[in-house]
Amino acid sequence: MLAPAAPDEGRTVRDGRVLVDGVGLEDSNPMNDPRSPPFIGDLGAALAPLPVRIPDADDQDALDRIASTAPSDALWVGAARLAGALAAAGDALEKPWSTIGHGARVVFVVGSAHPRAEVQIKALEEAGFGPALLARPACRADPLTVQEALAAHAVSVIDIRRPDIVAVSGGETALALIKALRVGSLRVLGQPMLGICAATMAYGDTSLLFLTKAGGFGREAVLVDLASKFGLRVAI
Asked: If I label 49, which of 80, 127, 138, 160 is the partner at 20 to 30 A Cα–Cα?
């Protein structure tokens, strides 16, 4: 059961095709990702000989219906919105989020090359988080080299500023930073906000809260909203 929709972020599924803001994935901004352009072929053929269903999903209600009516032996493949629908269908209880303490000190690391990430960077700067923001430089160097350099710089900043939280935008950036920090494992805690994953990691003699989100998705002010919701402070 393949259900990759994230309707609140503009990603829907119709007639077996993924749409981003109503535009086919093959013509959307995520296709410009230099490190990991999305797969745009026939998903059914790619997963053969497994029998695959790719149901339409234009909103969260559709995902909820999919989760509650699919065969019990289905193998689920999807994103966070599907996970939420499955949890609700299984009578899981939502627990209030209380791990992030008000006034915690944060460093933002934004490495995604997606245009939406650039807008989110601008929103952070305008909200006064510029001193706590490490962003991908505007250059044409090899993307892997840029990611590794950004991760190495982030490690030095973390060592000096000793933040409570590191918030990372971009999956490749998060992986590069985890490798640069030489962290062997993370303990996933949950979702402090829709589309943002929280985990703890042991680093040196301390424990860091590690927040991650996909670089190409989320509202313009999603990172600012995160900081506001939990009263985060600039780590200086």
From this structure: 80
Query: Are 120 and 169 a contacting pair, CB within 8 Å?
Result: yes
d(CA 158, CA 32): 30
CA distances from 86 to 52, 71, 76, 216 (A): 18, 12, 9, 24
pLDDT at 160 over 90: yes
Domain definitions of the chain by residue range: 2-89, 105-234
pLDDT tens for 213-223 read 988 777 888 99
223 closest CA partner among 95, 91, 130, 113: 130
CATH of domain 105-234: 3.40.980.20
Query: Is the CATH code 3.30.980.40 the one for domain 2-89?
Result: no
Q: Would you say the pTM of this structure is higher than 0.70?
A: yes
